[in-house]
Every structure is written in structure tokens, then in C-alpha cells.
Amino acid sequence: MNNLYRLIFYLAIFCFLFENADADNSVESEWLDLIRADITARTGDNCDVQVEEVVYSVIGNNGRMSECWVVQACGQVMTYEVDYFPPSAFPDREEDKFVKYVAE
Question: Are 99 and 85 in contact (CB under 8 A)?
Fold first, then answer.
């Protein structure tokens, strides 16, 4: 019986980690979509966006995330700051995901 509890415990941990990893990928996909939309609005070109480097990443105790990305798009290298504000910690914000163009 003890082994059954141990198995359930490890399965619960695995499911928790898998769920959180998937959530991070979802946020990153939405950031890429927002960057793509910003580039399209600024240049008029609809280009594929690839992350070349994550310069820094900060994650707060409340789930807030802030990262600086160097991206390749339309034959150019650009820098964006990307932020995530969890609705549970920031209920008054209209948007929970935000991107800001920094430099080329």
C-alpha cells in the first residue's frame, strides 16, 4: 500500500510540472504572435519570427514574468521586452501579456 501512495505522489508531481511547462509555452506563443503583429504594423511585412536569444528572464513570486528577447524577423535582428501579468495577481489590467519594441 505504501508503494501505491508513493506512485500517486510522483504522478501528481509529474502532472503538475507538465501542466506548468505547457502554460509557459502558451505564453511564449502568444508573445510571438504579439511581436509578429507589431512587426507587421510597423513594417507592413508579415514575417516569421524566431527567438535568437533570451537576454534576461525575471519571474516574480506572484507569477509575473518579464523577459528581454532578441528576435530575427524580416532579415533583421530586433529586441523586444515581453511581460506577463497573471490576472489573479493583477486583476485591474486589461491585457495580461505585453510586448514592447526596444531596438534593432
Answer: no
